[in-house]
Request: fold
Amino acid sequence: MSEPRRLPKRERQKRILEKLRASNDLWIPGLVTALDDVRHMHQEGQAERMALSPVNAAQTQVASRRQKLAALAMRAIQPHMVIMIDGGAIALDLARRMAADARQITVITNNLPAATMLGANPTIEVMFCPGRYDGDRRTVDGADTVRFISRFRANLAIIGACGITVQGPNSAHADAAAIKRAMLERAEECILLLDCTKFGNRNPHRLCPLEEIDRLICDERPDAALSAALSKARVEVQHLSAILL
Reply:
């Protein structure tokens, strides 16, 4: 049997972007180079649609909210911007949306799946950080990563966190926290992208004081104490319950 014809690069990219626009849960390892192979396997009945699908209703709701947060964050992204994004599930939702809808931007990231998704869009320049690879989080980190980030100035840093309190956003991982801090230090505007399950979570590694965050994009209004602290720190808060997407 002859080998299937490999699609031209532009056609593969077109199909990838169509899939990204049509699906909020699409993730194919090696997305750019594997698309034609996956299609061929599916035709032969060897593979079904490859996705990271939530396994219960609660996870489905969280995933849906993260996707809406990504859509809201997209409003801050304009052509010719330099944008830094870090690791985490919400960063993947944002990268997926950026890959489908953004044009003429540069993205600096330590997030391997995000870099792969963004690389499918020929108008996006992806700067993938060097460093030590963490297979669990699918990110790179360490001193080399921080040094690389420090070489750039960005218009936006859009990061996630494991939690947020009146003392500021925090992370459970020291290495991840160091990357987030480096991005915050090199960006003109800092956006924190969180779902409400992170409100009140306390983790050992504080990222920064609230005053260093310009905008919090979240799905629900924070409680009274956190709202007051955010207001005092002059953090702009955008939440889905107040915005029609």
Observations:
- The two ends are 49 Å apart (CA to CA).
- The first strand starts at residue 82 and ends at 85.
- Residues 57-73 form the longest helix (17 residues).
